[in-house]
Amino acid sequence: MTSDKPQTLDDEPDLSRFAPVRSWVFDLDNTLYPRHTNLFAQVDVRIRDYVQRLLSLEPDAAQALQRDYYRRYGTTLRGLILEHGISPDDFLEYVHDIDHSPVAPDPALAAAISALPGRRFIFTNGSLRHAEKVIERLGLGPDFDDIFDIVRADLVPKPHADTYARFLRENGIDPTSAAMFEDLARNLEVPKSLGMATVLIVPRGTEEVLAEAWETEGADGAHIDHLTDDLGGFLGQVLAQIRTS
């Protein structure tokens, strides 16, 4: 795109930027599966419960602290490590011990991802085990060359620039021939600055979504190349463009 604003969902997207892409990088939660699945809501509740138990707080106070750490540090876990010196293993095991069954198989998405030229990656602030369960439910199977989780990131989450550098270095990715798909606009600022194509995944249609205001900040910024509320459909358009270019 040449505009300083991302396209709206109603635009006919210019997808020529994807022709040279050979590394396809996907966030996990609310990206590979739609936000209305509410899977992460389960994680959110368990994070609150963990904070409440750890610090002997009332539920409202625990939730307020959880959100404060999430906003300031990128993950609540990072805040708990820096502010309280916790070990991450118990936290990660506890908060991701959820029911993954709300994630439904997505054959169209699986087919589109499988057909992408080059390599495919998951880059998540969550855990490896959680990612594996999600992709199993989606029916994606062995489609990904690597799952780069929060442990691989040395517990430093997106959007920290060092974490992107570590991810790219470990996987030998040239960012100028890569694309990144995310549901949080702020997590696309560094990828765009490095030369990656950026796609923001937004909620489907006009459905109501309860989100913190800061989570939607920057969605109309110049660091967003494309918006979509249908990842599988968007990738299908990209593939059609690539095949005809």
UniProtKB/TrEMBL annotation:
<keyword id="KW-0378">Hydrolase</keyword>
<dbReference type="InterPro" id="IPR006439">
    <property type="entry name" value="HAD-SF_hydro_IA"/>
</dbReference>
<dbReference type="Pfam" id="PF00702">
    <property type="entry name" value="Hydrolase"/>
</dbReference>
<protein>
    <submittedName>
        <fullName>Hydrolase of the HAD superfamily</fullName>
    </submittedName>
</protein>
<dbReference type="InterPro" id="IPR010237">
    <property type="entry name" value="Pyr-5-nucltdase"/>
</dbReference>
<dbReference type="InterPro" id="IPR036412">
    <property type="entry name" value="HAD-like_sf"/>
</dbReference>
<dbReference type="GO" id="GO:0016787">
    <property type="term" value="F:hydrolase activity"/>
</dbReference>
<dbReference type="InterPro" id="IPR023214">
    <property type="entry name" value="HAD_sf"/>
</dbReference>
